[in-house]
Amino acid sequence: MQLNIGPGPESARTIKPKRGYWSRLGHDIWKEWDLYLLLVPGILFVLLFKYTPMYGISIAFKDFNIFSGFADSPWVGWKHFEKLFTSPDFAQVFKNTVIISFLKIVILFPLPIVIALMLNEMRNMIFKRTVQTVIYLPHFLSWVIVGGLFMDLLSTNGGMVNKALASMGMEPIAFFLDNSVFRSVLITSAGWKETGWSTIVYLAAFTTIDPMLYEAAKMDGAGRWKQLWHITLPGIAPIIVLMFILRLGSVLEAGTEQILVMYNPVVYQVSDVIGTYVYRRGLGSQDYSFSTAVGLFEAVISFTLVIAGNAASRKYLQRGIW
Fold first, then answer.
1. Under DSSP, is residue 147 helix (H, G, I), strand (E, B) or coil?
2. Using one digit for the tens of pLDDT, what is the confidence trace for 190-205?
3. CB–CB of 238/149 below 8 Å?
4. SS3 (DSSP) at 62
5. What is the mean pLDDT of residues 33-61?
């Protein structure tokens, strides 16, 4: 619709009314229909494998019986959540989860940033690319393989590390049976496997920094440290914020797959996390309703942490992932 304002056609002005959101969306889809068509498989995948299974959350509010099914299992409301928050086992599990996640964030999150900064300063490209490849390769190994490697290295029966300790006159350490050192095994193995992946992400972020900034800094007399502090770190700050917010979303996950491969009943006291607890109660004890309640609790907390982390980042750093 067009409105003509003025006494005649010569002084007429054309005013186009502002279209609504759905009208603009429909116009964009019609204009770029081929690109939107490419979205359909991805959308169907998300709906089928991410949203459809959410119906199973109702198990957390029922006494689920595998033979009765979803519909006929009796509704019990918050019974399993009350059991969850009063369970002494879950208190220890939650504590383990927080401690292991906190240690991984404090120790492992800054590590790839430091390595990326060091590699970025190297001028020998052959050595730089060799180091990148070597630290990146463990990311492609499954936790089953990584667990086997560390069990072989740290074994008290001929393991390389304990052989080295014995050669120095020290007693062998049962790394996988000692509650005081098992968490260090988890942190070390996680760092060895995943640090290279995050390092590559930060190295890619360096390429977005304008080289002219470094040239200008050199002309102003800035040395390597000042360039690092005033150009490099601010240049990759958005990626650091993004990675940290995404890391917050997996705080209560704490490396379930890794721990399932490496732990045993002897070290449950320091290594049993929410993910492994759900696995043992859900599949081991077939307590599907309770394990679903635990999983739902973990998901809600993780979602809240991501929202809160993004809000805090936008407020104090003026950066966020949305």
1. helix
2. 999 999 998 999 988 8
3. no
4. strand
5. 89
